[in-house]
Amino acid sequence: MTDDRTKAPFVAGDARDPREIARRISLLEKSLGRRSLMGAMAGAGLVGAGLRTAPAAARAARQDAPALPDDAAPLEEQVYVLPADTTLDKTPDFYEAVYERVSDAAFDIFSDPLVRLNRDFEIIPGAALEWSGNEEGTVWTFQIDPNLMWNDGTPVTANDWVATFRYGADPEHAWDFTWFFQGVLKGWDEAIAGEIPLEELGVRAEGDHTLVLETVVPAPYLPAMLLYSNPLSAKQLEEVGPLYNSNPETSVSAGPFMLEEWQADQRIVYVANPDYTGTLEVPVQRVVIKLAAPNTWFTMYQNDEIDYMQKPAPAEIQIAQAEFPEQIYSSVGDFRTYYLFFDVTQAPFDDVKVRQAFSHAVDRDAIKTQILGPSGVPAYSWLAPGFPASNSEGLKEIQGFDPERAKQLLAEAGFEGGAGFPALTLQVRNPIPLEQNVSQAVAAGIAETLGIQIEVQNQDQDTFMDALTAKPTEIPFGFVSYGMDFLDPFNMLSVWLSGGRHSWVSEEFDTLVRDAASFTGDPEQRATMFQDAERVLVEDVPAVFIYHETPVQLVKPWVRGAVLEPDANGITSVHWPGYSAMSTVPAELYIGADAPAGRGDA
Amino acid sequence: MARYILGRLLGLVFVLLAVSAVTFFLTRLVPGDPFAAGERGLPEATQAARAAKYGFDQPVWRQYLSYLGSVVRGDFGVPFQAPTTTVVELIKDTWPVTIRIGLLTIAISYPLGILLGFVAAVRRNSFLDYFLTFGSTLGLVLPNFVVAIWLILLFAVRLDWLPTGGWGKPEHYVLPVLAYSLAPTALVARYTRTSLVDTLGADHVRTARAKGLSNTRVLTWHVGRNALIPFVTVMLPEIPNILTGSIFIEQAFRIPGLGRFFVTSTFTRDYPMILALVLLVAVVWGVTYLLTDLLYTLLDPRIRL
Amino acid sequence: MAATAEARRADPAAAPTLAGAERRAGNTRRALRRFFQQRLAVAGLVVTALLILVGLFAPQVAPTPPEATILMDANRFPDRQYPLGTDAIGHDYLSRVIFGLRTSLVVGFAAVGVACLIGIPLGLAAGLRGGWVDFVTLRLVEVMTAFPGILFAMFLVAIVGGGVRNIVIVIGATSWVMLCRLTRGQLLTLREQEFVQAARSTGVPEARIAVAHLLPNALPPLIVAITLAIPTAIFTEAGLSFLGLGINEPTPSLGKMVADSAQYIRVYWHLGLFPTLAIALLMLGFTFVGDGLRDALDPRQN
């Protein structure tokens, strides 16, 4: 192997050139920021006004085979093979365990959520054909598609959602995502603490096909949140228990796929649900998920044992660039931002000058060219380009790279040339190779610029998160990331609310974020309010923003369909959240006739 | 003899108790929650609810006693990482896979190692001996995660003869067993050589030779038998290691075996699984040692129990 | 008597030491001579000594300090400027290998030191005092053996955290069992031998017998075991590193470098090759020295 492999060149204008991606992302920011805000703001528009309605779609059970394009493999060979991490196969259901469910490959697919995302990141109808909010934005009514059926013959009714939300709030379940509806759904906070019976939760069915959700604050973002609303079957929940979907014998589906095989730590197989009556027309007939440690995925991919993978290691990307560059795609992922954070309540990081010094000591451009490549873009603020209300350009200078300024600020804080500065340990959360390289380079850069000592220590996920979220926090200096849960600035910015993930407290920020979140007026004005909040965050430097992730995907040439055509913003990739009923991806992907046989075998 | 074995088994019960107690208290000392705290941590209410759900709000000694109570009834609990099964079921499903690979590894590496060691001992200090000694030491020093990667790159990616991993077909055995065999082969070869060299120089062998016994007879009977003792000492204890698997190999080749759980259970703080694994290993070791000591009495009449 | 079986099990290669105290003086010289007659052992000694020297004088030998990086020079293959290339964040890899060797040696020696500090006194006490001391020690040994080492080590690292000092303690605390067994087994075998019986019958106090007669005779197999335990400790650190539980950056260690290189070796072959080579040399060196010592110290070779 020779040197030139290290710098695999991009052809000018190549869709996968990092600069090209950056350009497209900035385009995305412009259009998406506006449109998606409108999407998220649908509620605001809806207050007293119109309704969102599903396009007329196939309603009858899919008796006849879907029409496949000419270059598609025959129906029985429409097999899509994906890898998933072995540690994530406890359950397929979001409302059972968010962080331990199958979530890498194909997931949340045994029922349709109320709303889903299309390829342009717009919220579109899923199981809910239309929805509306009341004047204040505190009572939300969803009309459920009356045609939906569980494949055990039971109709899907509003009661399934009621049962699902109650299960999520049940203290005996102690769900890992209870924070999500805290301060949003009426009665939620009291229910998870066991203070009120689950029946008093602000989620109720009015008849079979009308679901009503009440919120404690005006919540124009509620429809966007309800991306996460794949219902469980109330009947199975009652009769079999919450884990009914991990066993093909008790699994029940109202979604495009149903469970055929569940072999813990080995493989999971879904087959098309012949009784599906929802709106996704899915060409793939069989999804095989191979459970494997992520560091084995690349050789599997090279050996044609899987069709798709995400986040190859840096060296693996280089092999791909040399051997099959046309199979590399940069996605925007979940608009994830990686950052250094400080415990601002403790010395030396209680001094904003110290934090500012750190923020000016990170050469993001060098990290971009030498480490990130197509996997990320430099970050100087919290909201990634393209995310609603993102203001990357406007905030760029505040934490910009300026080693002289950094040294001067540290001197002003009383640590001239790093003298007297305590030795630091940077805690890093369970890093994949890319994150490991970035965290080490960042630490080395700061240490060298400021003349201080920084050790880098990796922690496993659970230890790290427990220490981080402990009150008071046990991590004075760390490297971590956050990716969006739903497409509203409130979601990303709420991470920094007082008493949340970090020890930073700013009343100004809290007020700005909460006011903006509940604001039901002009979307542009709402975005400006969020941008004011973000500026407070960036200027007070509780965090040094390092990069926005643009996860690399490898996709075999026989994976085809609209998913791999540029979206309205010119971005080409399998969009977040991926092969899931939360997204239109399953309807937009088919397997070409050139796919080698036997990929779905063990 | 029966009394001796009974005594040893009683000792084993003591060890199991001690090991389970130490493990139990260690797991509670280790920072980190067995269940994901999520990206933002759990609300206090949920944290309390979870502690109550799994009994973590009880004093540790009471948790331990109730655990012991269940174990005596044969109930090892439900693994946190696989809530749809039980610890017993999970081990029942995965251990045979590891044992099958392990037995194949032993079947290949031990005879091969003995052969190589024998050759090296007989041709002592020859070029061949040096070559084998060097090779076997190298076999011991290459980390098996490195070996696994090389094997996959060569046989699966470059030559495309075999799948990169997986489970269920005969070809899935080839690479893991190969990767796995390297170290035991090297170890067996080294010890065979050493103990043969020792015995070859021993008085009674010289006597046997002096008596004019044929070389083969001397080698197989006098030398072989005496060399077996150190061999038993070193190689038998390797067997529990081989039979309980390796995270490195199982992860690299995607084998649904038991070995991974030693690491994944620790990472995920899967208390029930950790305890079961520790007890399992303790039993396997206890039995192996008992067998080793019994074998001594057969091999060397001077050793009494 | 289970004790004899125990003693046997403790160390296969350590032959029953027949040498009497009065024969010891000339033994050392003979042993040295025998050691230097073995070509592999001498080669091992030379390699080991060289590596130790490089480790000792790492700051003088290495071109840069181990934590120095030039990010813009990351991912370079070996060339004139960087004889062993650079890694993913721009460390000079030659310096990393040299300092990694130093760390690995420190871990190896210190961890085995810790293991000796725990294992040998326990073994001595058990072997000399017998009775309940022996009983308790044996049970402790059994419990430790039954504990899966990697699990125990992971627990300890999770509790006490990473870093060189902690890794040394963790590896030491999980590897003393073998030394304890060996010491105890040696004492049990020696105790029954004629020269000790003789000393005892002439009224020499038990403690003096232990120091003057037992320990020196028990030493040779211990030295061998210690020599062979050092590479094992270095290896254990590599395994922990592979699981992400090793020594913290920016301190390099050979084990960590080998482990980290796993994801690169298909492109940046140099990242895997050089530390693997260094570890292999180190292990070969120690192993050959250990083997040589065993052969040299075996009195039957007289």
Automatic annotation (TrEMBL), chain C:
Protein name per UniProt: Dipeptide transport system permease protein DppC
Family matches, as CDD domains: TM_PBP2
Membrane topology of this protein: Multi-pass membrane protein
Composition-biased stretches (Basic and acidic residues): 1-11
Family: Belongs to the binding-protein-dependent transport system permease family.
Region described as Disordered: 1-22
InterPro entries with a match to the protein in the record: BP-dependent_transpt_permease, MetI-like, MetI-like_sf, OppC_N
Source lineage: Bacteria, Pseudomonadati, Thermomicrobiota, Thermomicrobia, Thermomicrobiales
